Amino acid sequence: MDSRFGSGVESVVPDIGAGRGPSWLDAWLNANAHRVVAWRRHIHSHPELSRAEHRTTAFLVDQLGRIGLSPRLLPVGTGLTCDIEGTSAGPTIALRADIDALPLTEATGLPYSSTVEGASHACGHDAHTTVALGAAMALATAPDLPGRVRMIFQPAEEVMPGGALDVLASGALDDVDRIFGLHCDPRLPAGSVGTRVGPITSATDLLELRLTSPGGHTSRPHLTADLVHALGSVITGLPTLLSRRVDPRTGTVLTWGAVHAGEAPNAIPQDGVLTGTLRTADRDTWAKLEPLVHELAQSLLAPLGVGFDLQHRRGVPPVVNERDSTELMRAGITAALGEQAHADTPQSSGGEDFGWYLEHVPGSFARLGVHSGSGRIKDLHQPTFTLDERALLVGIRTMVHTALLSLRS
After folding, report:
1. Fewest C-beta atoms under 10 Å: which of 42, 80, 210, 329?
2. Residue 82 assigned as binding residue
3. Is 360 among the annotated ligand-binding positions?
């Protein structure tokens, strides 16, 4: 075992879809399942934050180059694309994975835990990257590929507006006909993949509201503008007003995450800040939210005499799965694993910059089950998040079959 992959992986995880073919895919997974697990553990133990994924990028370039592929770095310096050329002319299908980690310290206690303080793959991007790498390696052995498969290893998904815009700016989607992606889902068991037509994630914006006041003594609030009271009015009032101005069927939700103001209990502070996220599953609603939120904040604060500055940072659009692409992915799941492996999945209020791709080309984004089936669910974006490594081979089979069906559709 290459020492760069950390501790050796002596046992091979079970291949849930073994024997379902095609024969070259079965053969590749049978010979390389141990390497797939090793890749994931190597990436997991060496996480890199958004736009700093240099070591991960170099690792992928090295692995893809070893089998004769020609990866191309993105102009931003991290992330890459890599084409697997077919044996005959046909469409170009893109498969995307995100490669960055979260700014969280891991607390799993795994022998291959993160070696980087303050960074971990608590969102499963190590698995996404490994699945895409395995799919690329397997597809490169296909004897008959009627078209081109473009692998996209995207940086900076965990920041907004996201590295998907860097991929688009590079022109990597200019000749792509469809695009597909997977995301770990600890609420689905390993061996299953969830799909959904229409919105599967939400648009996500960041709000930062700064208030100013002359300040004063808490015994004389009538002689100044009570900034803390104003913050409280916005904390409770803005989400309420928004819920009366936006159709509830759009899944629009404003949630505050942090508030800071003052230090002394008997002093009205001169400034304060309130931050939160604003999410919606509806593309048209997303386009209208910024002026509406400003209008509502102004109406709440005008009678209270405080000054305010509202920074509305638009993040990512909702991921809206196109019907035909989703049907192709469902067929790919069935071909790879059997009908029982397909699961429906609900729309999530989480954000995903895969939505930027679907503004340009049709495609679909699915949920890869990673729960072992026993014990408490370890959720995403938590220091204790873990996954069942059987899901890695499930993901590879799903992406390969989806690509094959799409090339022939």
Report:
1. 210
2. no
3. no
